[in-house]
C-alpha cells in the first residue's frame, strides 16, 4: 500500500441527500430507523479471534508474490473461507509488476446470500510489501505486514465466521486481493494490481454492490481513522454512516471527523473508478495526514496489533451490516 499521497484542500462535495426536509418528517423517519435498529440482534465481534487470524497470516512469513508463503497462506485463506461462506471464488492470474516482471496473483472472493440483489462489498489485501522501504535502518529487509494487510484480513475472517453463525439480511461479498503492495512510488498504478484485475474482471460478470468498505491497517495500537478525501468524494454517505455507527458504539477515539486533508491511492480508488462501486477506505492515519510510524517498516509486526483496535473496527462493521446497512 500506498502508493501516492496527496493533500487535498478546498474540495467541495454536493450531496442531494442533504436537502432539507420538514422537521416532523425527519423525526418520524429517525424514530422508525431507531425502532428497526433496536429490533436487530447484532453479534458481538470477537477480537481474540481476529487477533488469532492476524497472527496466523504472519506465521506464514511475508506473503510476497512468487514465494512459498504466498501459496501456503492463500491455501489457508481459501480453506478457512470455504468453511464459512456459501460460495468461494478464486482468481489465479498473472499480473505485470512495476519492472515488467510476471507476478502470480491470487484473489479470493467469499459470497454470503448470493441470491440477494442488495449487496455490500468488503475488501482487504492479504499480501505483504516485498521490502521495508520506509525503515530507518534496513530498507531492503522483509517485514511481517501484521497491520498493513493481515489486520484487515483478520477482521474480515472473523466477520465471515459471524456471518456463518448468524446470516445477515443482505448479500455480502468478501474480496481478499493479492499483489497490492508490490508497487513503486514512481508508478502510481503499479500498486493494487490484484484489485485492478478484479475491477476489470469481477468474479461474476456484471457484478454490482451498493457500496464497498476497504479495511487497510486496522489493527494498530492507538490507531485513528480519518475520513480520507477520495473516499469522501465517491462514498461519503456510506462512510459517514460507518463513522456515525462507530461513534455511537463508543469508539469516538478511533473514528475521527476532523479533516486531515489526506488522499490515498489505495484499493478503493480502482473499485470506485473501474468497477463503479462507491467504496471508502478505513485506514490508520495521523492527524497531519501521514501514515502511522510502523508503515512499511520492520516494526509492522504483531507487537503493534491491539485487540481493542480490532474490536472497534470489527464491531462497527457488524453494527452496520446487521442493523443499518443502507441507512445513509
TrEMBL record:
Gene3D superfamilies, sorted: Zn peptidases
Domain of life: Bacteria
UniProt keyword annotations, A-Z: Acyltransferase, Transferase
Entries under InterPro entries matching the protein: Peptidase_M28, QC/QCL
UniProt-recorded name of the protein: M28 family peptidase
Domain called Peptidase M28: residue spans: 107-320
Upper lineage: Bacteria, Pseudomonadati, Bacteroidota, Chitinophagia, Chitinophagales
Amino acid at each position: 500500500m500506498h502508493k501516492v499521497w496527496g493533500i487535498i484542500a478546498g474540495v467541495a462535495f454536493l450531496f442531494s441527500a442533504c436537502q432539507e426536509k420538514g422537521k416532523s418528517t425527519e423525526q418520524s423517519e429517525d424514530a422508525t430507523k431507531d425502532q428497526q435498529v433496536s429490533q436487530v440482534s447484532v453479534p458481538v465481534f470477537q477480537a481474540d479471534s481476529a487477533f488469532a487470524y492476524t497472527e496466523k497470516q504472519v506465521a506464514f512469513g511475508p506473503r510476497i508474490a512468487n514465494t512459498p508463503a504466498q501459496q501456503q497462506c492463500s491455501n489457508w485463506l481459501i480453506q478457512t473461507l470455504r468453511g464459512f461462506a456459501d460460495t468461494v471464488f478464486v482468481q489465479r492470474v498473472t499480473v505485470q509488476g512495476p519492472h515488467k516482471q510476471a507476478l502470480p496473483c491470487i484473489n479470493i472472493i467469499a459470497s454470503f446470500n448470493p441470491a440477494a440483489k442488495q449487496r455490500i462489498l468488503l475488501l482487504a489485501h492479504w499480501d505483504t510489501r516485498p521490502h521495508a522501504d520506509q525503515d530507518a535502518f534496513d530498507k531492503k529487509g522483509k517485514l511481517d505486514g501484521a497491520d498493513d494487510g493481515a489486520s484487515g484480513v483478520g477482521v474480515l475472517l472473523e466477520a465471515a465466521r459471524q456471518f456463518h453463525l448468524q446470516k445477515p439480511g443482505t448479500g455480502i461479498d468478501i474480496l481478499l486481493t493479492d499483489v497490492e503492495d508490490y508497487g513503486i512510488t514512481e508508478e502510481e498504478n503499479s500498486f493494487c494490481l490484484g484489485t485492478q484485475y478484479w475491477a476489470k474482471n469481477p468474479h461474476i460478470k456484471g457484478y454490482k454492490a451498493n457500496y464497498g468498505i476497504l479495511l487497510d491497517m486496522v489493527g494498530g495500537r492507538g490507531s485513528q481513522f480519518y475520513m480520507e478525501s477520495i473516499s469522501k468524494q465517491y462514498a461519503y454517505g456510506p462512510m459517514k454512516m460507518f463513522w456515525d455507527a462507530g461513534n455511537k458504539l463508543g469508539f469516538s477515539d478511533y473514528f475521527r471527523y476532523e479533516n486531515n486533508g489526506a488522499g490515498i491511492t489505495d484499493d478503493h480508488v480502482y473499485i470506485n473508478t473501474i468497477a463503479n462501486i462507491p467504496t471508502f477506505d478505513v485506514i490508520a492515519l495521523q492527524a497531519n495526514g501521514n501514515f502511522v510510524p510502523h508503515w512499511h517498516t520492520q516494526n509492522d509486526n504483531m507487537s503493534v496489533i491491539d485487540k481493542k483496535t480490532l474490536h472497534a473496527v470489527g464491531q462497527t462493521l457488524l453494527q452496520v451490516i446487521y442493523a443499518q446497512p443502507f441507512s445513509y
